[in-house]
Design a protein that fits this description.
12 strands, 3 domains, alpha/beta, elongated, 5-stranded mixed beta sheet, Heat Shock Protein 90
Length: 387
Amino acid sequence: MATQPPDKILIVEDEPDIALALKIALESVGYEPFWAGDGEKALQILLDDNDCHLALLDIRMPGIDGVEVLKRLRSSNRDVAVIMMSGHGSEELAVECIKIGAEDYLSKPFVLDDMLQRVERARSHRLAVIEKKRLEQEREDFFMMLSHDMKNPMTAVIGSIDIMREGRLGPVNEEQVDYLQSAIDSCNEVILMIDNLLDIRRFEVGKMQLSIQPYQPVDIIRKVVAQFSRAAERDGIRLSLEFKDGIPDIAVDRNALTRIMGNLLGNALKFTPEGGEINVSCNRIEPSDAHLTRVPSYVSLPDGFLERQCFVMLTVRDNGNGIPSDELKCIFDRYMQSSSNGGRERGGAGLGLSFCQLAVESFGGAIWAESEAGQGSEFIILLPCVT
């Protein structure tokens, strides 16, 4: 059975006698110490040697001092634990180094037993951090793999059901067609949920790829409304679209805006009773318009947002059960669902609105909801015009 090699520790010290004492003490407890007499050499070793676990780094050295070595090391994202070594009068500077990213510091002259305890503590902490990062990466990889791979069988299920619905495997009556279409709609909801979850995570880690360009919002919204018209008709809900001529372009990602409006319409359909109404509107808003005063105080606006010369306001309004006023500020939080349960059905994981908020904010816009329990809801998106 192979033995675990000893941990390598770099001693960065311009005084050879001190470095030798440290080397002997570390070797006595099983570490593998080696020495660099200046900051430049130490930085080169630390950036090139992935096997170096820890550095004892003197603060004051000729050339590149220990503080600069620490800063460059942290900016390089090299995962090396660092214990600063400070002479008399440098304790405050050593504390500042901890804020930069050092694990600990030693004051000279130091007691060898105390030094060894601090080294072991820093080593243990570093190993714990490495293990945490490993587990987080495994979880992230599993999450992305599972979420991505779930879509493939769902797509196959939709294709199979659609073949049956179209009667290509034999005749189906009208009632069977409706049931099969409901199954397809449910599968599409699962796929949308997966897409929302994946894209929320991409936004959070800065890996969401968007192609933001000027688009005519009415063209996008009209297609989304058309996609939901059949479901609305099947549920006995009147779905309408209102807009005026001369709506200016807005800078958005076309696919993301389509998803935003789809999420809002999907929610409205869930919570609007049979015989109810859903209205989608698109309007140009001037800076003097009273609508701008409706932006709630808890909505985060980009700098100078309200000083823009022109806005486009998109709304989705329903006459469902509504949202309690005390929940409006957190309705866009991930996994949040309104406690109002008077709709025709519940569903979803509370991810759609979270995606909507992240996407709208990436466009430099704002989104919020207005509602009172029992009086329906209105979701409002405010985006700057392309000038």
